[in-house]
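Subject line: Sequence and fold of a protein, written as structure tokens
Body of memo: The sequence and its backbone structure tokens, given next.
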Amino acid sequence: MFRPIADARYWFQSAAQEKIRVRRAGSPTLLPPRGALVLSDGSTVELDYTDRADEGKIGGPDAAKVVGLAWRDRQGKGWSAEVRGDRIARHRGVGATLAEAVAAATDAYYTAEAAEADLREDSVAHLDRELARHDWWAHMSDSYGTALAGERHMQEILGIAARCPADTVRALWAKYAPADGPACPV
């Protein structure tokens, strides 16, 4: 699950514990010492995980405006950023500076969103992808959540199929549906 604010809080707690461990054992640090919250307008709130005073910055921005998290690698050579938009997919970017990493992650996000919009315009390609992704046995799951997700996905597939020619739907259904699975809706 993608929770940038919770992850930043965890890094603060872990940095404090790691500082004690490093002092005792003399071993190298494993966590990134610096990071940033990425906001929806592209700005960032920089954080120093080794400075507990910076932990107060996490509560500053509105949680709905936080779309990502950035961190500096342990060697201090570059930054990585990860953002998430309306969908579940995460988009990662790497750069020499924080701004470059955020820009790369944001560009990856917008490129993926544009590709998704193009795919959704072509009903046949969209149906092909969704049938290939569908869990045909979700209704057999012991997990109610899995069964419900499968049912919702099938409803989405049926909506897409309604916009496609019947012979194409039958051909794609035969290609992906198991022999003893649900019958083709058209």
Observations:
- The longest helix spans residues 98-121.
- Helices lie at 4-25, 98-121, 123-133, 144-161, 166-176.
- Residues 4-117 form one domain.
- The longest strand covers residues 66-72.
